[in-house]
C-alpha cells in the first residue's frame, strides 16, 4: 500500500511548479482564520523553554528554517536536553537512538567516529554543528549540546552537497542572561565514571559568559575493548544581547582516548556466533583525537523586519589511530593461515577456525573553515507576505591521512605477500581469542598518504510566501561550485601488481550544481499544518576527498525527494504529532561495470512513511515516540556490483523508538521505553544478515528544585543484539552493550 501511494507522488515536482505559477490574487481575498502571524508562536516558545524536563521542542535553531516547525514543509525531529538527560544519553549516537530511521555504522576501514545512516543513505558528511558542516571523523559528546535537530530528506538547497537522507545538526549551549550552574556526576556498573559542569553568568545587562566541561573514564559498554578516557571544554561569550547588534564567540575543545570496536566477522550469513564480549583487536589498540571548533557570529538587526547575519566557523580534528580489525576467517596449519570462502567454512567446528587481523593505523588531519552571510527580510508585495532568506557561502575543507601498516605472521608464516601493504598482522582463535597484545610487537611502516582539499562557493535564495492565513508556498534555489582535488602517495602507478591498487595518483574535479526546494503548506488552524514538498541534493564523487580509479570524472549523483505530511498540536499545544509519506530516489548512482570503471547508471529508491509524537498526555505523563517504515531497494545496477534488487546496507524496514515518563509522586518519576529494529544487512550483496531486536530501557528519578538523583537501566532483558554494522571485510557487526545500570546526580546552583 505504501509503495503504491509513493508511486503516485512522482508528479509532485510538476504540481508544485504549477502551483507557483498559478495566479495568486484569489488567495489574498480569503477570510483570515484565528491564527495570527507571530505573537502566538513566540508566546508558545517561551512557555516551552521555561518548563524544565519537557521533551517537546516545537522550534528549530537553524537560521535557514522558520523557527516554528509548522512552517517547515519537511519532517523534523528535535531531541532536546531534557530527553537526553532522562535517558542518560551522553553521546550523539545515544541521542540519535530517539530518531526512527537512523542506524549506526561502526569504525570503517577509512573512517572513524560517528558513521550514521539516515533513511537508507549514508550521512557520514551530513553532520552539522550550529548550522555548519562538522565533517571531522570523531566521537561526538553531548556535554556542550542543548539539542540535536534532524531534518529529513535531501536538502542541498539549504546546506550544499550531500544530505541525501537528511541533515543532523548539533546545537551548542549559548550564554544567556539567566544565571545558572549545573554539576553532574555519574557511574555505571561497567566502571565508567563521568562528570560534567555547566556554568552561565551574565556579565552585564547585555553580555554573558557560559562554560561547559566534561571528563569521563572507564568502560563504555560491557564489551571488551571499549575503554575511554575523554575530556572536553566548551565556552561561549555573547555581548549586545537585546541590542540591534549581537555578537557570539564560542569554542569547543575535546580530547578522546578511546578503543576502537570493529565487531565480529561474518560466518554462514550472520555475525559469528560467539559471546557478546568477544573482541578481536589488541589491548594496545587506541584512537586518540583532539578536536577544536571555533565560531564567531554577528547578528545585526537593520530594522525590525530585516536582519543581517554573518557566521564563521573553523573545525580541526587530529586523529592518531592504532587499530586492529577482524578481516577474514580461515584455518591455521603448518603452512600458516589459509583464508576460507563462506561455503568452505560452512560445517566446520568453530573451535577449528581462526580470524586474521588487519591493522588500520593512521594519522589524520581534518579541518574546515566556512563563512556564511545571510540576509533575512519580511516584506509584502500587495496582499502577499514574504519571508526572504538570501545567503552567500565560502568554504574550504582540508584532509591529510598518513596510513601505516603492520605486516605480521601466523604460526611462523608471513601473512602478507612480498612488497604489499595489506597490513595483516596476526591470527587469533574465532572462539575465545584471548584479547591480548598478540601481534602488537609487529613493526609499523608508513603506507599511503592521502591528501585532499576542496573549495566551496555558493549562493542561495529562499522565499516563504504567505498567501493567506491558511496557505503558504515555499521556494528556494541554491547554486554551488565545488572544486576538489586529491592525491595518494601509493597508487596505481607505483604499487606492485600483487597489491591490486586502484587508488588514484591524483585527481581534480569541478562541479556546478543548482539545488531546488519547493513546498506548499495548508494551515486550517493554529493547531494543524499539512504540507507537500519536493527537494533535491547532489553527491560529488570526491565529496569525502577520497576516490578510486574510474570515479574522478563522473558527474555528481543526483537525489530527489517527495514528501506529503501533517503536523498537529493537541491538548492545548502540550502534545505534538506528525506523520508523513515520502520517496527518496538516487537516480544516477555510481555503479562499477568493470575493474576500475564506473558509470552513473545505478538507481536506489526508498519509499517510506514515518510518524511521531512528543509531549505531555497529562500533566504528569509525557512521551517521545517515533516510527519509520523504509522500503529501500537497488532497482538498477551493474551485474558486477551484484546489488540489483538488494536492500541497501544497514537499512531496516521497520524502526520504532519509544520513551515515556510518569510522575508517580511530587518528587518521584518512573519511565522507560523500547527500541525496535527489524533485520538488516551488513553488506551490499545481502549475504550477511543481522537479526531484528527489541531493547528495553528504564529509569527512576527523585527530583528536587536543586538536584535530581536518577537511576538508568539499559538493556533490561540483557538482549544480544547488533548495534552497529560495518560493510567492509564482508560485513562486520558490533554487538550492543549488555545489561547496564547508571546512577547519576545533577545539582543546580
UniProtKB/TrEMBL annotation:
Organism: Collimonas fungivorans (strain Ter331)
Principal localisation: membrane
Pfam name, any one: Plug
Keyword set, alphabetical order: Cell outer membrane, Ion transport, Membrane, Receptor, Signal, TonB box, Transmembrane, Transmembrane beta strand, Transport
SUPFAM superfamilies xref list: Porins
Protein name: Ferrichrome-iron receptor
Membrane topology category: Multi-pass membrane protein
MF terms (GO), sorted A to Z: siderophore uptake transmembrane transporter activity; signaling receptor activity
Family assignment from sequence similarity: Belongs to the TonB-dependent receptor family.
Cellular location(s): Cell outer membrane
Signal peptide interval: 1-28
Amino acid at each position: 500500500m505504501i509503495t503504491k501511494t509513493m508511486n503516485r507522488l512522482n508528479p509532485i515536482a510538476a504540481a508544485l511548479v504549477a502551483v507557483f505559477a498559478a495566479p495568486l490574487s484569489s488567495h489574498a481575498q480569503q477570510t483570515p482564520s484565528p491564527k495570527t502571524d507571530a505573537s502566538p508562536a513566540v508566546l508558545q516558545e517561551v512557555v516551552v523553554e521555561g518548563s524544565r524536563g519537557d521533551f517537546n521542542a516545537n522550534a528549530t535553531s537553524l537560521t535557514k528554517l522558520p523557527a516554528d516547525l509548522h512552517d517547515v514543509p519537511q519532517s523534523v525531529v528535535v531531541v532536546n536536553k531534557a530527553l537526553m538527560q532522562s535517558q542518560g544519553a551522553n553521546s550523539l549516537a545515544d541521542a540519535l537512538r530517539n530518531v526512527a530511521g537512523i542506524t549506526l555504522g561502526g569504525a570503517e576501514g577509512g573512517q572513524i567516529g560517528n558513521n550514521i545512516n539516515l533513511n537508507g543513505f549514508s550521512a557520514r558528511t551530513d553532520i552539522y554543528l550550529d548550522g555548519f558542516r562538522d565533517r571531522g571523523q570523531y566521537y561526538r559528546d553531548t556535554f556542550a549540546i542543548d539539542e540535536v535537530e534532524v531534518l529529513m530528506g535531501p536538502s542541498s538547497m539549504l546546506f550544499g552537497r550531500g544530505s541525501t537522507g537528511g541533515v543532523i545538526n548539533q546545537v551548542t549551549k549559548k550564554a544567556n542572561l539567566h544565571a545558572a550552574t549545573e554539576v553532574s556526576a555519574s557511574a555505571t556498573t561497567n566502571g565508567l565514571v563521568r562528570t560534567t559542569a555547566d556554568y552561565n553568568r551574565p556579565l552585564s545587562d547585555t553580555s554573558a559568559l557560559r562554560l561547559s566541561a566534561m571528563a569521563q573514564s572507564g568502560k563504555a559498554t560491557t564489551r571488551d575493548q571499549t575503554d575511554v578516557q575523554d575530556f572536553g571544554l566548551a565556552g561561549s561569550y555573547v555581548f549586545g544581547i537585546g541590542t540591534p547588534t549581537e555578537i557570539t564567540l564560542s569554542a569547543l575543545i575535546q580530547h578522546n582516548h578511546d578503543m576502537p570496536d570493529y565487531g565480529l566477522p561474518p560466518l554462514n550469513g550472520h555475525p559469528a556466533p560467539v559471546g557478546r564480549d568477544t573482541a578481536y583487536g589488541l589491548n594496545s589498540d587506541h584512537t586518540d583525537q583532539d578536536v577544536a571548533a571555533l565560531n564567531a557570529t554577528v547578528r545585526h538587526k537593520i530594522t525590525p523586519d530585516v536582519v543581517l547575519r554573518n557566521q564563521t566557523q573553523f573545525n580541526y580534528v587530529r586523529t592518531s589511530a592504532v587499530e586492529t580489525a577482524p578481516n577474514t576467517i580461515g584455518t591455521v596449519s603448518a603452512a600458516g593461515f589459509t583464508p576460507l570462502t563462506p561455503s568452505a567454512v560452512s560445517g566446520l567446528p568453530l573451535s577449528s577456525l581462526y580470524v586474521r587481523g588487519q591493522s588500520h593505523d593512521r594519522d589524520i588531519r581534518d579541518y574546515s573553515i566556512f563563512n556564511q552571510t545571510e540576509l533575512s527580510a519580511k516584506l509584502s508585495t500587495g496582499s502577499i507576505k514574504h519571508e526572504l532568506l538570501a545567503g552567500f557561502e565560502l568554504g574550504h575543507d582540508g584532509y591529510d591521512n598518513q596510513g601505516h601498516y603492520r605486516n605480521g605472521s601466523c604460526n611462523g608464516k608471513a601473512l602478507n605477500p612480498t612488497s604489499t601493504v595489506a597490513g595483516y598482522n596476526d591470527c587469533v582463535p574465532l572462539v575465545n581469542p584471548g584479547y591480548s597484545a598478540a601481534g602488537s610487537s609487529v613493526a609499523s611502516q608508513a603506507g599511503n598518504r592521502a591528501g585532499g582539499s576542496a573549495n566551496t562557493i555558493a549562493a542561495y535564495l529562499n522565499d516563504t510566501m504567505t498567501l493567506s492565513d491558511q496557505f503558504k508556498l515555499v521556494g528556494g534555489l541554491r547554486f554551488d561550485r565545488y572544486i576538489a582535488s586529491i592525491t595518494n602517495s601509493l597508487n596505481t602507478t607505483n604499487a606492485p601488481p600483487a597489491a591490486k591498487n586502484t587508488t588514484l595518483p591524483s585527481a581534480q574535479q569541478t562541479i556546478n550544481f543548482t539545488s531546488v526546494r519547493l513546498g506548499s503548506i495548508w494551515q486550517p488552524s493554529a493547531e494543524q499544518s499539512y504540507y507537500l514538498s519536493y527537494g533535491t541534493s547532489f553527491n560529488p564523487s570526491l565529496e569525502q576527498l577520497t576516490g578510486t580509479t574510474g570515479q574522478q570524472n563522473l558527474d555528481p549523483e543526483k537525489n530527489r525527494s517527495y514528501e506529503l505530511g501533517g503536523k498537529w498540536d493537541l491538548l492545548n499545544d502540550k502534545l505534538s504529532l506528525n506523520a508523513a509519506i515520502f520517496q527518496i530516489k538516487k537516480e544516477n548512482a555510481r555503479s562499477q561495470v568493470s575493474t576500475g570503471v564506473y558509470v552513473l547508471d545505478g538507481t536506489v529508491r526508498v519509499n517510506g512513511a514515518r510518524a511521531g509524537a512528543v509531549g505531555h498526555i497529562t500533566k504528569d505523563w509525557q512521551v517521545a515516540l517515533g516510527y519509520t517504515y523504509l522500503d529501500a531497494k537497488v532497482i538498477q545496477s551493474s551485474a558486477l556490483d551484484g546489488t540489483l534488487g538488494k536492500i541497501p546496507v544497514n537499512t531496516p524496514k521497520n524502526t520504532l523508538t519509544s520513551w515515556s515518563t510518569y510522575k508517580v509522586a511530587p518528587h518521584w518519576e518512573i519511565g522507560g521505553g523500547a527500541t525496535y529494529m527489524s533485520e538488516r544487512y551488513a553488506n551490499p550483496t545481502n549475504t550477511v544478515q543481522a537479526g531484528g531486536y527489541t531493547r528495553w530501557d528504564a529509569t527512576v528519578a527523585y527530583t528536587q528544585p536543586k538536584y535530581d538523583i536518577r537511576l538508568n537501566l539499559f538493556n533490561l532483558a540483557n538482549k544480544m543484539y547488533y548495534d552497529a554494522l560495518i560493510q567492509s571485510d564482508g560485513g562486520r557487526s558490533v554487538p550492543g552493550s549488555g545489561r547496564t545500570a547508571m546512577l547519576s546526580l545533577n545539582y543546580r546552583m
